[in-house]
Amino acid sequence: MRAEIEIAKQWLAKAENDLLNADNNLKAEDIPSDTVCFHCQQAAEKILKAYLVANQQSYPITHDLLLILEQVLLLIPNAEQLRNNLILLTPYAVEIRYPDDGCMPSVEDALEARKAAEEIRSWLSTSIPNLF
């Protein structure tokens, strides 16, 4: 289990970097809201994968947060509380990175995405406090 915890901590460190990137961009004079939303989605994805790794589970190779959630729910049913935040963040995984999808979130969307990511991080800190 020790090796899994160390790998999960690495996943969490990557997620923390995504959150730092989001926070730094939110402080910018001209906020790149699409970038903030993308990094919030990435943080949530890495947090869910950290949970799975810490529990000696493999994770699906996907950006679909709801698919990852289904695997997490097999281990901890209270993760259902994350669903609405994951629904909010899921579109920011792929579509937002390309100009032809017409998706440009507002600053308010970016703030909402950051709040959702923080709630997911908080869930992990309660679920597996020894990762922090």
Would you write up a description of this structure?
The protein has five helices and no strands. It has 132 residues and is mainly α. The longest helix is centred in the first third of the chain and has 25 residues, at 2-26. The chain has a single domain, classed as Four Helix Bundle (Hemerythrin (Met), subunit A).
Task: Describe how the helices and strands are arranged.
Layout: H1 2-26, H2 33-54, H3 65-73, H4 83-89, H5 107-127
Helix pairs in contact: 1-2, 1-5, 2-3, 2-5, 4-5
* CATH level-two architecture: Up-down Bundle
Which H/E pattern describes the elements?
A: HHHHH
**Stretches where pLDDT falls below 50 for ≥5 residues?**
none
What CATH calls the topology is Four Helix Bundle (Hemerythrin (Met), subunit A)
Distance between the termini: 16 Å
Rounded mean pLDDT score: 95
Fourth CATH level, the homologous superfamily = Nucleotidyltransferases  domain 2
Count of beta strands: 0
What is the global morphology?
Answer: globular
User: What share of residues are in beta strands?
Assistant: under 5%
Tell me the major beta sheet: none
Number of helices: 5
Radius of gyration: 14 Å
Helix/strand class: mainly alpha
Total domain modules: 1
Q: Indicate the CATH class.
A: Mainly Alpha
Q: What proportion of the residues is helical, as a percent range?
A: 55-70%
